[in-house]
Amino acid sequence: MDTPLRLEVIVGSVRPKRFAPVVADWFLKRARAADAFDVGVIDLIDTPLPVDLTENPTVTAFQERIAAADAFVAITSEYNHGYPASLKTAFDSAKREWRGKPIGFVSYGGLSGGLRAVEQLRQVVAEIHMVSIRETVSFHEAKRKFDAAGETQDGAAIDAAERLLRQLAWWATALHTGRAADPYPG
Questions:
Q1: How far apart are the C-alpha atoms of 186 and 60, rounded to whole Å?
Q2: H or E stretch including 116?
Q3: Run of H or E residues at 154
Q4: Whole-model pTM over 0.70
Q5: Domain containing 121: what range?
Q6: What's the rounded Cα separation, in Å, for the pair 170 and 14?
Q7: How many domains does the chain have?
Q8: Domain harbouring 86, CATH code
């Protein structure tokens, strides 16, 4: 492709004193260094989507950004063995805009590193016709993994981020080409 693929990174947690910005900023540095992508951020704390799924100008703008994107990465915490309600609301606030596009996950949490949330999200994104990238970045006991500057020495996460971005670029290119040649039959 001559132009970079549009990657939207969705920051899922909206809790006060959330740890999400630390994880998101770390991942965004890596994503922005990847030549394949033009990277945007949709932080759900700044995107108040109505939980009753009514339409309003914020929802319309959100749907337009989703429609224009080629790929996504969701930054998700794990709350009570699940993902944030704000992230489910985001997935439910658009429909056809998600279809035929890849998504990767960066998760964080306690002992599980958010992986239970990711496994549940894989079911959600399959239902809305997305392709889930197999490689996942996860931070177990996340607050212990980052220094005061927001950097980590977690070699597994660093390696996983690189693999996720390469796989995401491959799928985004293949699916972008496919949608251009023949619109997704959803």
A1: 20
A2: helix 115-127
A3: none
A4: yes
A5: 5-181
A6: 31
A7: 1
A8: 3.40.50.360
